[in-house]
What does this fold into?
Amino acid sequence: MELTKKQFAKIEHLMPKSRKKPTISNYDFMRALLYIIENGCKWRALPKEYGNWHTIYVRFNRWSKSGIIDEIFEAMQTKNIIEIRTEIVCIDSTSIKVHPDASGARKENGKQSIGRSKGGSQQRFIWCPRLPGQQ
It folds into this structure.
């Protein structure tokens, strides 16, 4: 995913104007960003030829929060500068073992924690999942 000057000219108008001369040009920033995306490396592993990794990360973070990065990549796709394909989808399911007290086990004094709030009063609702087709 190498960005040429001609391709960059098509999306340059989407980038905000800087108040002072930036240490890394927008063209070099986009090249570095595409390198990170393509190689999936950490920011600190960005080769020195792209500039200071921290400067690039800070700009990326600022532009992401303001929605500029989304606009740029949408424009890059519509103008056929890049083509994003999803080849692999991974779903991570994490389970955490819960302490018996948190899962509603009976306490030593024989009182059950489910159905009681912090103040000791009865809860107003209990979530009860139902199987499809049951009323």
Summary: Residues 5-78 form one domain. The chain has four helices and no strands.
